[in-house]
Design a protein that fits this description.
Layout lengths: L1 E6 L4 E6 L4 H14 L2 E5 L5 H13 L2 E5 L2 E5 L7 E2 L1 H6 L6 H9 L1 E5 L12 H9 L3 E5 L2 E5 L7 E3 L5 H11 L5 E5 L5 H12 L3 E3 L5 E5 L7 E4 L4 H14 L1 E6 L10 H6 L3 E5 L2 E6 L9 E2 L11 H8 L5 E5 L9 H6 L4 E5 L2 E5 L4 E2 L2 E3 L3 H13 E2 L1 E5 L2 H4 L5 H7 L3 E6 L23
Parallel strand pairs: 2-15, 3-14, 6-7, 10-11, 18-19, 22-24, 23-25
Antiparallel strand pairs: 1-25, 1-26, 3-5, 4-5, 7-9, 8-9, 11-13, 12-13, 15-17, 16-17, 19-21, 20-21
Bound molecules: uridine-diphosphate-N-acetylglucosamine (UD1).
């Protein structure tokens, strides 16, 4: 078992390059199935979720290789469209492959742990979207199967702008004979990135990034070279680290436009921000100021994935801040872990009230999910003394060697291999579960 050890209360200083976005890499890999050809993904982060996606492609018969940050994917050899229980366990969000596999290979089956949940959360919108395009969906025990048959496109009206359902709908529509429209589509930058990748390969997608997307079906796609957009959540995590510890950092390879709802929060915290050409400099001279109210929402509102890291920075703020989570239920579990560092947070419903403390102290804490993991790392960076963070496999799903990046900024952080496999216990410890985490 590994854990991360951090000696905190050190100001950060230096520059860091932001790696490619996890939430782009995963749908792009699902999209590579539509090509039936080779594609090159540049700036593809080395994350366990990306590896899991690559393993799915490999086990279906495709080929994936990595050289540095470039992933070469060849899906010509895919001869199966069944994502088994074993594969599903590697990446629970492999539902994203359902649209592309059935579009390209006529049908696809995905194992769903706990049985099929057609009509119920959390994949009801994916099912609805695929059916609206003309696909037929059936459920056989724990397998959900999707058949293309005579699907010819259609109009998908999403009651909620789900990122995954929008991506699945795009992937399922690209190779159909007819034209399709997605109404109330998610507008996240990762959707635009997926559309750009597919359009470069020959697709005809317009409107990505707006709430109405039109897809004119094409017969086939071809090889493509694509650079993945920078990870806006990694950028928000690094800025939260600087706000929490003080100091300054230059973030390179970052798109300020993708952070339009996040940057004003750091401004309100009293950080100084300087926007350059694909870079942001953040300076934090003192304890952060409290932020009146943050409410998470669909893009371009404040991203749910940045909620936990920003909350960690606010634990040392002067005053009281409020954060309301509207996208996922039960995504405030990190508050209990942050309290181990001495943070004062009260939660009522989906709102956390953070009463800033001048100092946090070292603690042993665990990662309850990916972004919760980032929040405890930030708490440890700002706390006095040496902290240990457990269950760090969650962090490795979304941050490439987080200890290296933070060390480059002067933090005292190291990954330790612990043979004894110590685990800290909490009353409601659910190691390995992801409920309420959209990134599971
Ligand atoms: C994606 C991101 C995740 C981010 C989330 C919201 C990836 C790999 N993950 O997750 O990091 O936190 O967007 O920005 O890109 N829902 C349903 N039925 C469905 C689908 C979703 O009820 O069929 C609900 C979910 O339970 C959740 C909300 O809709 O409450 C948002 O989900 P969605 O936008 O689909 O997020 P993901 O695509 O899963």
């Amino acid at each position: 078992m590994q854990y991360i050890e951090i000696t905190g209360a050190k100001k950060l200083s230096g520059s860091i390059r932001i790696h490619g976005a996890k939430n782009s890499a995963l749908p792009l890999l699902a999209g590579s199935v539509l090509l039936g050809d080779e594609c090159f993904l540049y700036d593809c982060p080395q994350l366990s979720d990306v590896t899991a996606c690559a393993e799915i492609i490999t086990q279906l018969g495709g080929k994936v290789s990595r050289e540095g940050s470039t992933l070469t994917v060849n899906t010509a050899g895919i001869n199966s469209a069944e994502i088994s229980e074993e594969l599903m366990n590697k990446m629970r969000s492999s539902i994203i492959f359902l649209g592309s596999l059935s579009a390209k290979h006529g049908s696809a089956c995905v194992y769903l742990p706990g049985g099929c949940q057609i009509g119920a959360r959390p994949i009801d919108l994916h099912i609805m979207a695929l059916r609206a395009l003309g696909y037929s969906i059936t459920c056989d025990g724990n397998n959900i199967c999707c058949r293309r048959a005579s699907a010819s496109g259609g109009t998908v009206r999403l009651p909620f702008a789900s990122v995954g359902a929008t991506e699945n709908a795009i992937l399922a529509a690209v190779l159909l004979d007819g034209t399709s429209t997605i109404i109330n589509a998610a507008r996240e930058p990762e959707i635009e990135d997926l559309a750009e990748f597919l359009n470069t390969a020959g697709a005809k997608i317009s409107g990505a990034g707006s709430s109405i997307i039109e897809i004119e079906g094409v017969r086939s796609l071809s090889s493509v070279h694509h650079r993945i957009i920078p990870d806006r959540i990694l950028a928000a995590t690094i800025m939260s680290s600087v706000a929490a510890t003080g100091g300054e950092a230059v973030l390179k390879n970052v798109r300020a436009l993708h952070l339009s709802s996040v940057l004003p929060v750091f401004d309100e915290m009293g950080c100084k921000l300087f926007l350059g050409n694909n870079e942001i400099k953040i300076i934090s001279n003192s304890r952060p100021r409290a932020v009146r109210s943050i409410v998470t929402g669909v893009y371009p509102s404040f991203p749910t994935d940045a909620q936990a890291p920003v909350m960690a920075a606010l634990c040392r703020s002067k005053g009281t801040s409020r954060i309301t989570e509207t996208i996922f239920e039960n995504r405030l579990r990190h508050t209990e872990e942050l309290e181990r560092f001495g943070a004062d947070i009260s939660v009522i419903g989906n709102t956390a009230t953070i009463h800033g403390k001048p100092k946090l102290h070292a603690a042993e804490a665990r990662c309850t999910d990916l972004r919760a993991g980032a929040s405890v790392v930030i708490a440890a960076l700002s706390a006095e003394g040496t902290s240990r963070i457990y269950d760090i496999s969650h962090i490795d799903r979304g941050y490439e060697k987080i200890e290296d990046g933070l060390s480059m900024l002067g933090a005292s952080v190291r990954r330790v291999n612990d043979e004894k496999g110590k685990q800290i216990k909490t009353e409601n410890a659910q190691t390995g579960t992801h409920s309420g985490d959209g990134e599971s």
